[in-house]
Amino acid sequence: QFLLGQSDVGRNRAEASRRVLAELNPGVVVEAYTGELLEAFLASFQVVVLTESPLEEQLRVGDFCHAQGICFVVADAKGLAGQLFCDFGEHFVIDDLAEGDPVCATVQHISQGNPGVVTCMGTEDGHGHLFCNGDLVKFSGVEGMTELNRQEPVPVHVLDAFRLEIGDTSSFSPYRRGGLVSEVRRPQERSYEPLCQALEEPKIQVASPEELPRSRSLHIAFWALHAFRREQGRLPRPRVLADAERVLELARSLGTQQGPLDEDIVHAFASVSAGDLCPVAAVVGALAAQEVLK
């Protein structure tokens, strides 16, 4: 933990960290609270983040936050593995779904027809546009077919790298020259499920199908670790075979409906789960902080 020194051993970590943490940004009020996480206390927050908390507490706080419309994040790191869960409620509005600047292209020609076809290219000469099917676009600076400049955003259908269909233009004035076609990004609403549902039916997204068994096995390993801690009152001891085997047994019993279990992953995870590594905590903490900013 970056904010603690040898002299802080034995102290409450929140209280020991508060002063140094507050110095990072004088404009932010930082308080240390060491009482029980009662609902009356939690109700005053917009976002609640839990770290190193028992599963029972995660479920209790998560259910309360979901019901109250409070954004809820769980962040944890065990050895070399990290875990992050986000529940932003049933009506979370995303103002900017994509990163970077909106897509823009230079208009070369627009046909009169149903549908009308826009010929364009990217703002850098020689490159095609970067629009996708269904993108909403608006027009500006079009000469001749000026009706497009006043039109509400319309969806496009991509024909190829240089042509887009935009709907009925048969009644518009003939196109003469010029113009830009620009992407319009509108807020979108997303619905998040509470932790109790996510645990039962995890929706794991991976870059390739080969990664799915490993990701699923890590999910079950964290679940089994909570069961071990509830049973033994502690985390598995480092490199103690009996403790790792018990976590594996619990994982087998919990993961019967989740697909094949990578037992080597679970065994390795249990063997090092009692360790705290600053780099791993820093990565998981940074991701959690970014979710809080959203």
UniProtKB/TrEMBL annotation:
Residues 187-254 form the Ubiquitin-activating enzyme E1 four-helix bundle domain. The keyword Glycosyltransferase does not apply. It comes from Neopipo cinnamomea. It comes from the Eukaryota. The lineage of its organism: Eukaryota, Metazoa, Chordata, Craniata, Vertebrata. InterPro entries: E1_4HB, E1_FCCH, E1_FCCH_sf, Ub-E1_IAD_1, Ubiquitin-activating_enz. This is UBA1 enzyme. Belongs to the ubiquitin-activating E1 family. Gene3D superfamilies: Ubiquitin-activating enzyme E1, FCCH domain, Ubiquitin-activating enzyme E1, inactive adenylation domain, subdomain 1, Ubiquitin-activating enzyme E1, inactive adenylation domain, subdomain 2.
